[in-house]
Structures are given as structure tokens and as C-alpha cells.
Write a structure and sequence with these properties.
Elements lengths: L3 E4 L10 H11 L2 H18 L5 H13 L4 H16 L10 H12 L3 E9 H10 L5 E5 L1 E4 L2 E4 L6 H9 L6 E6 L6 H5 L1 E7 L14 E3 L3
Helix pairs in contact: 1-3, 2-3, 4-6
Organism: Acinetobacter calcoaceticus ANC 3811
Pfam families: HAD (PF12710)
Protein name: HAD hydrolase, family IB
Length: 217
Amino acid sequence: MAEIVVFDMDGTLLSNDSTKQWIKEALKDNIFRLSGAILIMPLAIPLMKIKKYKSIGASLFLWLATVGLSDTELHESFIKFSEKIKAKSYDDLYWFMDGIQEMHKHIENGKKVIIVTAAPEILATVLVKSIGMNVNIIGTPLKKKIGGWIGGEHCRHKEKVRRLELQGIKGPWFATYSDDIEDDYPILINSKNPYLINSDSKKIDNKLTNVIKLKWI
């Protein structure tokens, strides 16, 4: 069986939060969605600042951004968004070429690469496909609610390990790449070779003394 390499996506392979950027654009493109977003900001923004409740706040904005869209329309919007990222249309949201090369290197060496992300799984799948990577994707599931979509069980922290275990993958696997030592501690500690990407964190757990910091561009 091939050794497993786990990558986070936002902040690790992508320079920023892809879901946040997509929602922001979807809201700005429609005056009714934008008006609704302004109304819920006093509730949603504070929730998003607390990691435990971030998914609830994000789901409120996600629902507003997607209400009324068909499955096809939602998918098409993700494709257009992925093409804009690939074309480097954003100053603060782009792929780290070093990360893509690292994935290619592991695949060429016979490893199995899995991207485990808190982003919606269908969005992450479209984004990764746009750069020609054929790897497994595990992310937050979306579910239809009153004409729009909201996030299911948020794929972060211990949930990432649980989702990997559902696919028969148990630690320690070969390597993990992440930008957040606190949020992704469970997948970092479950790997033989943990890597922190573009992180300025000085807080290193004594069980993660072998973590290696990398700068990717």
C-alpha cells in the first residue's frame, strides 16, 4: 500500500481563504444578497471570529450566496472562480507553485496524496481539478437548506482525522503539510513528517519537535 501524504488547502496550497473569497464575490454580484449579508453581519461576523463557531457564521453567508442557485449553477460558479484563481486575477489568492511541485514530487515517488480541507468539498474538488491534480479530496460537505446551501460537519481539527479514518487511513502516515499548527494539530501529530507552511507561529508543542517550517511561493 502506498504511503499517505496529507495536505491542507487554504493557506497551505492556496495563499488565502478560497471559500471566503468566493462568498464575497457572490454577495457583491447581487444587491439582494449583499443587502441580506449586511443585515446578518452583527451576528455572523462575531461567530466567524471564534474557531469553534466559525462554520456557523460562514454558513449564514454561504446560504445567502447560494440561495436560488441550481446544482448546475453552483458548480459553474465554482468553475469560473477556479479559472480566475488559475489566471492570477487576485492579488491575495493564488496557488503556491512550490506546493504544487511538492504534490507532484510525492506522486512521482509513489505516495498517495490526499487534500483534507475545511473548505466545501465540491469547491475544493473544482479548484484542485483546475490545476490538473488528480488527488483525493476530503472537505466540508454541503447540504441544501430552504433553497440554498449550508455547511455540514466542519472538516477541521479532529474532524479531519475522523474523515481520514473513514477511508481506512490511520496514523502515523508519511507526511502532513499545513499552515496552522493549532487548527491542524491532529493531522500534524499523526504524521511522521509534519511541515508548517509560511507560518510565523512560535508555539511548537513538545510532541511536535520534529516539525519543519517551509516558505512557499
